[in-house]
What we know:
single chain, alpha/beta, Rossmann fold, eight-stranded mixed sheet, 10 helices, 8 strands, elongated, hydrolase, membrane, AB_hydrolase_1
Amino acid sequence: xxxxxxxxxxxxxxxxxxxxxxxxxxxxxxxxxxxxxxxxxxxxxxxxxxxxxxxxxxxxxxxxxxxxxxxxxxxxxxxxxxxxxxxxxxxxxxxxxxxxxxxxxxxxxxxxxxxxxxxxxxxxxxxxxxxxxxxxxxxxxxxxxxxxxxxxxxxxxxxxxxxxxxxxxxxxxxxxxxxxxxxxxxxxxxxxxxxxxxxxxxxxxxxxxxxxxxxxxxxxxxxxxxxxxxxxxxxxxxxxxxxxxxxxxxxxxxxxxxxxxxxxxxxxxxxxxxxxxxxxxxxxxxxxxxxxxxxxxxxxxxxxxxxxxxxxxxxxxxxxx
Length: 321
């Protein structure tokens, strides 16, 4: 009798310990899932007036979930360079906002503005001055960017648009660029090719936890953000569907420790007509910081060549050495 009681007691203790471990692991995965989908919100530390730019404060709604998004419309006073207005929409990286990245996005906006491009800079959900909502690494951000395209096209009357994104913004630009006819060119600095595969491979880098926790965290994120499917965040597939007249220019530092440059190489191999530049230093989305003049020249050359395909009245493109 005493032996049976001891066995029963042992089994109950074992079940209790096992249940406690499961609860702790579940709580840990939910915590990690919450943290990665809710990065700290950075405040805006500068504005276009710091670069002598005229601008308009803008708020617009996401076309799907009606979140309020915040941005700046920076019109160029040199639109005589083009027969029709041309606009570039910036898409910032994960955990950043329209200005707070490892380089001065306003400096780049100023150069583009000087060359005759309108520039639209905005904050994705859960960033800057936009409404709070979980970050989804390009999933729901795609509809944020498509809504920005709607705003520029419908409210500002600009039908020739380019997208320029960094990291998560690069991924989102490739995804949105595949769906929006107004988009004639996409510049993607440091994207990943497939979210599911990248999340598995880089899980330890971002969280410090073993890769074996990746699948559980993905399931936890599915609970935290209902309807979000990481399997749909595949810029590799989106880029494969680009028509021949929609340009894609990939930029990726060989020294990038956060997203390997092989991710951009994979997209480039599958995207017919795409172009790629692999700077030899710079780290993650830091190529502009290290190669500002060359970066600007390459981007402007690419934009001019792509827009020329859709506007025969453009002057002959300038090729930079």
